[in-house]
Amino acid sequence: MNDLPGGDRKTAGRGKENASPDNPARSVPSPVDKLSRLADPVTKLPGVGSTYARRLAQLGIKTVGHLLYHFPRRYLDRSNVTPIGSVKIGQDVTVIGTVCDVNSRRTRSRKNILVVTLFDGTGYMSGVWFNQEYHRDRLREGVEVAFSGKVQFQYKRLQMVNPSYDVLGGGEEGEDQGGGPQGIHTGRIIPLYPGTAGITSAVLRKMVSGALDAVDGMADVLPEEVRRTFGLMTLTEALREVHFPEGEETLKKARYRALFDEVFIMQVGLALRKKRREREGGGISHGSPGGLVERFRLSLPFELTAAQEKAWGEIAGDMSRAIPMNRLLQGDVGSGKTVVAVQALLLAAEGGYQGAIMAPTEVLAHQHYRRIGEMLEGLPVRVGLITAGTPVEDLRDLASGDVDVVVGTHALIQEGVSFDRLGVVVIDEQQRFGLRQRVTLAAKGSAPDILHMSATPIPRTLSLTLYGDLDVSVIEELPAGRKGVVTVVADNSQRKGAYAMVGKEVRLGRQAFVICPLVEESDKLEIRAAEKEARRLADVFPGLNIGLVHGQMKSGDKRMVMDRFGAGEIDILISTVMVEVGIDVPNATVMIVENADRFGLAQLHQLRGRIGRGSERAICVLFADPSTDEAKARMEAIRRYDDGFELAEADLRIRGEGSLFGTRQSGLPDLKLARLSRDFKLIRNARSVAFRLVDQDPVLSEGGNVLLRWEVNRRFGGTLDWLFHG
Question: Are the C-beta atoms of 359 and 411 separated by less than 8 Å?
């Protein structure tokens, strides 16, 4: 992490103006120096030794900044707590007391009952749990606890069944059960934090209070104009108020400031990364599409959709500039992304460059190789295939430039694979590859253009964050002639009818998929389930050709099964989730998914996209027995929405952004407060200001932007260190 401006870290920003009035020679930390303490390890705080540091690390807290941005999950207003002696039966209340008794026993019906009793000086209240013995690990005698729930009177005592509770303090070395610094534990609104073993809310309150004192009066990382534009309180005020609020209104303003910082600083980082790429240039200017692209377009047996034409125009425009293209092409399953990508590969070939397309699985790579080869038949373009077992001669052809377009798997990034003149890289299903893998392939050329493709529709709110430094093209239109897919959510009582429908479709000359349950715990169990299903369906459909494919089969065997299915030799294909991506069999009109409630919405949509790719209407039957509200919501969403982008927005609402993408893999800071669907307007406005700021000051080296530069790099985990080197 680079230090803040002002010279040596220990003396940064210090001088006579900061001398103590009582001792002119003594240096006093400046606001800038106090800001730099956000990067200090937590062990610099009083009372935080190596034991606590290890425990805090389990929460992702390693620095003072991490601690201050570990926000409360909720608050408890201790000035509005009901004394136990004043509660009324049937009331929903919060009471606070000290655990004075913990008792567990077994009933005649063999249930375990745990009874934990509090005393607050005015009376006793018991919390009762059935078969939840684990609560006693936290609710020990002497611990101060808040119970929230409905009051009952049974067995001659006041009690709450399954109360919500928070351990407020006690039982941990170093916890102060008195008022604490500035009364942080009593008589006020107190924060309740996500914790871990040995780190209660009381411990965190004390640590956070010390951290706030250490940075009190620190310089603000946001330029004054930005604070003024959005009406934001200062950083010091906001952090203190988020942790120890004085009231509801000020807490609301403080959380808005923290939320704004999350969104704005992420967008500034994205703008800096994009600006650097543009500034460094060094890309390939491929010129305008010529005869090769035109001959390809004329050979197509269909017209491109308006959405495909628009996306191609944006890609061709990028490729004509001497700035490396970094574009995301997203479109629903079957929207025709590959045809657009092939034009990019041909545009590179026109200028004497090579194009590469990397797929996440060998089955998909072989399919691309076959389809692209068919598309380019009759054109002076040689297509190659690189997988784990590729012969050495083929690698030599690629290195010598005899191959114009190469399709491959991860094998493309192996050390022994080299190109003559790599001009464009297409990453298919880019979310299946890590950042390092994508960068490694691009490094095999000299700043080639990169086109990322995704058939998993990304909500526009998400694309502004996760892919905020990429240009985005969207194909929102399906090719003409598609009749779509009808989705039915069924239970076992409808199984006979579903099988009758499969039999009818096969008699009409069509084909079906059956997807076996997702068994995350074990590949072997998943394979066993698929094999068992294949045997069972052979009895259900005597006389039909039934095939089986799963991820643990040898590559050649998988390819043979898929080729036979594609050729119509297999009527029903039993598969694990491995067919989720890219398999194209237009004659398949039926899909049955077993235990569909175990799958995520994106997976179900990808699976469903394997059918309905021809001119016949298709039907997808999802057998499900959803046991949670979330699973029920997923089943309703997949039944209701056939548009992938609408489905992705529904997924965002149901699951939240944290489960939809991994920010650590993408090199972005975590979002702790922002909710993309809720805060879209703020994200869009913050993005506009952030990109304008970086346009005016591309490395944030002017005036108040210098502190912002330091904070952006801190939040991005030091990955923007290049900002400080010219």
Answer: no
Type and span of the H or E element at 646? helix 644-655
Structure tokens at 255: 């959380």
Q: Report in angstroms the alpha-carbon separations of 140 from 104, 203, 369.
A: 12, 16, 64
| Residue 115 vs residues 50, 83, 97, 122, 142: alpha-carbon distances, Å | 36, 20, 15, 19, 15
Q: How far apart are CA 390 and CA 624, in angstroms?
A: 42
Q: What is the pLDDT of residues 357-385, one digit of tens each?
A: 998 888 788 888 988 999 999 999 999 99
**What is the tens place of the pLDDT at every residue in 450-478?**
999 887 767 666 666 666 778 888 888 77
Q: Judge contact between 620 and 648, C-beta under 8 A.
A: no
Which SS3 state, helix, strand or coil, does residue 250 take?
A: helix
In whole angstroms, what is the distance from residue 270 CA to residue 464 CA?
9
CATH superfamily of 291-321+336-454: P-loop containing nucleotide triphosphate hydrolases (3.40.50.300)
DSSP string, 182-225: GG-SSSSEEEE---BTTB-HHHHHHHHHHHHHHHTTPPPSS-HH
pLDDT at 689: 94
Taking residue 250's Cβ as centre, other Cβ atoms within 10 Å add up to: 16
**Distance between first and last Cα of the chain:** 16
Rounded to whole angstroms, how far apart are CA atoms 40 and 453? 40
> What would the two tokens of residue 193 be?
């934090």
User: In the CATH scheme, what is the homologous superfamily, with its name and number, of domain 485-641?
Assistant: P-loop containing nucleotide triphosphate hydrolases (3.40.50.300)
291-321+336-454 and 485-641 agree in CATH topology? yes
pLDDT above 70 coverage of the chain, percent: 85
Is pTM beyond 0.70? Reply is no
Cα distances from 702 to residues 474, 542, 694, 708, in angstroms, run 36, 77, 11, 10
Domain locations in the chain as residue ranges: 75-192, 291-321+336-454, 485-641
CA nearest to 476, candidates 646, 267, 591, 244:
646
Q: How far is the C-alpha of 643 from the C-alpha of 582, rounded, in Å?
A: 17
Beta-bridge partner residues of 485: 618
Residue that is written with structure tokens 């543009």 in the block: 278
Angle at alpha carbon of residue 461, lines to 456 and 464, rounded to 5°: 90
CATH of 75-192, one of 2.40.50.140, 2.40.30.100, 2.60.34.30, 3.30.470.30: 2.40.50.140
Residues 570, 547: contact at Cβ < 8 Å?
Answer: yes
Query: How many other C-beta atoms lie within 10 A of the C-beta of residue 233?
Result: 16
How are the residues of the chain apportioned to helix, strand and coil, as percentages rounded to the nearest 5?
A: 45, 20, 40
Tokens 């250490």 correspond to 214
